[in-house]
Amino acid sequence: MNEKLTLTELQLIIKDSLYMALPDMYWVIAEISEIRENYNGHCYLELVEKHPDEISIRSRVKAVIWSSRYRFIKSFFENSTRESLREGIKILVRAKIDYHEIYGLSLVINDIDPAFTIGEMALKRQMILKKLEEEGVLTMNKELDFPLVPQRIAIISSSNAAGYDDFMKHLTGNSFGYVFYTALIETPMQGNETEAGVIRALEKIAGHLEKFDLAVIIRGGGSQTDLSWFDNYNIAYYITQFPLPVITGIGHEKDLSVADIVAYRSLKTPTAVADFLIECMNNAEISLIEMIKKIIEKSRLIIEESKIHIDSSRLKLIPVARMMISEFKEELSGILIDMIRTGKEYIMRAGLLPVNHKSRLISGARSNLSARVTLLTGKKQSLINHSKNCLNNMNNKIGRFDSSLKILDPENVLMRGYTITSLNGKIIKKSVMLKKDDKIDTRFSDGSVSSKVI
User: Fold this and answer.
1) Using an 8 Å Cβ cutoff, are 69 and 110 in contact?
2) In 76-180, at which residue ranges do the beta strands (DSSP E only) sit?
3) With CB atoms 3.0 to 4.6 Å apart as the test, which of 110, 266, 316, 453 could cross-link to 438 if both were Cys?
């Protein structure tokens, strides 16, 4: 063909050829790469199809939804999927091919099937969960030991999120007066930056594990259409590998994201997360109180048992001592009788003995008798000393138990120089609980004083 055409004429030929060759509506599967609404209410999109690696693009086309259809399509899609039309999701559109001399080829979208997107989202979620299960990490965070007193909390959220504000107010304003240490790691909670932001926050907390008991991921306060940002393999994998328990409160009443499923505990809202932490602190306090009561009761039982044992030992020692004394008396009497008998025998055999022999005999008898008396006295004193030592040991043990109980007495704690400071009857544990002009009471061992914070 040697006919010369202008560019416009060529474009019109292309346009007519396309309309003639492709006059119908077509159902097309594509992923939204870009989307924007203009002031007239029209929605302009860029649709792509990616290779199986989900990175490189194999085809791309522009598309438009005119305002007259966009209002209906958007409302129906969001109500059906609880998901907004946004970058990164796959959709099934019913479209007509359009060609413009200036703007080129595009699709005019007449309808979007929400059922396809729901299926794609569910399939994506199931594939992520299956991969985590195959890797053996799905329940790793749930298997961690939860701290008895969860007081130091790392918060992954945005300071602008209403859920964060609700969480902090509920946590710090608890009726029990518990004090929590919190640190906010600022990160986007929706949009394309969510994945990188949450992972950076987890890595930052992992670098300071000694400062925290657990981490919470809270969003809340926004639309439920943002749930899919947490159906993310990389976020879920980082949570499974995290060395501290992770609690999520992303703010969805009906659905669980993949992040919720792999976390140690998933709660519906940030406020519910705060309630859970307060309840854990209250349970810990109750356990400590019960433990103190058991220690006190056990100490009392030990003291009572020791007193009974001492009394029983005393009663047992008295008859034993009497019996030993009686046995020594009988032994001494026997010795005396033997000596008298021996003396009589000597006298009978020798007849009249010289005076000096008699004196020596009497002296020897007296010496023997004195030695026996001394032996008996020593044994008696040994028995008395042994009894006193037993009683002293028992008294010392009772004294130690009594001293331990006195040390635990709050009055004695005050006597050692400690004080108790309170505001309106509530004990002050941290300086952050006070503000200027607050009137506080300080209790000493011998009274109390009132002060004003300047």
Assistant:
1) yes
2) 90-100, 104-113, 152-157
3) 453
